[in-house]
Amino acid sequence: MNNEALERLNERLDGTVYVGVVGSEIELGAARDSITAISLRPGDEGPVHRRATKGFEARQAHVEHFYRNTAHAFILLLDGDMEFKPDCLEVLRSHGLPAVSGLAYRRTYRPTVVPAWFEDDPEFRWPMQPFVEVPEPGRLYRLGATGFFCMLLHRSVFEAVEPILKGEPFVCEDDMDVWPYDLGAVLRGDEQLRVLRGTKDNVGADLRLSFFIRQAGFTIWGDPAVHCGHFVNYPLGLNDYSGFSRDYRQQFSQATRARVADLRAEQQAQIDALKGATA
User: Fold this and answer.
1) Domain over 3-171+204-244 is classified CATH 3.90.550.10
2) Which terminus of the chain faces fewer neighbouring Cβ atoms within 10 Å, N or C?
């Protein structure tokens, strides 16, 4: 990260916002109405709707337009199948942070409801640990990753992440088996490929960008006050998750952590095997 970007980490950031919404050809009226009702400031742009079969392509188009063609300070990425509070943007912007997310839950409710947040992990281990707490009101959470459903990002984030990606899109699904590389430099022998995950199964575009945001030195914050409803056959949200009994949530948390620990051990064994093969 350059010095200018580092200095911005100590500033309270403000400015206008480009609001980019991603959805499908089939729109939910209640979701669209809630997006239209989001409070904007003079100078903000949007909401601009893009429809795509693959959501990451539409999000990349939003990011490219925001980053290359506008002077807005922030981009707010929203999902078109969700219900938002009118003040969601203002609450997120009020923190003055470079990367901050609302709270939502994945579009599943059986066998359980799962947040679309992942825990902060200073060691950047894979797979990421899902956030399984019932968040406390009135506080912000450090996150390892978050979905794109209601995510506010400052321009400085993209300025810092761009050189790390070495020409790769900001938003795409990728196996992330190796670090981004300069293909020409690799072919010339000036750069060596470095193992990142060593595994060729796809990583969602939201986790991928979150990972590189954190590699660029930024903290991703989550604000549970901005909790958004994910439409299944009703707007799924915080009350559904917190409604499970304490014992059930404890069992779910323990089972999740045990499963992630097993997968991390498998991941490390895969990387160790790859290192052994090249020794």
Assistant:
1) yes
2) C
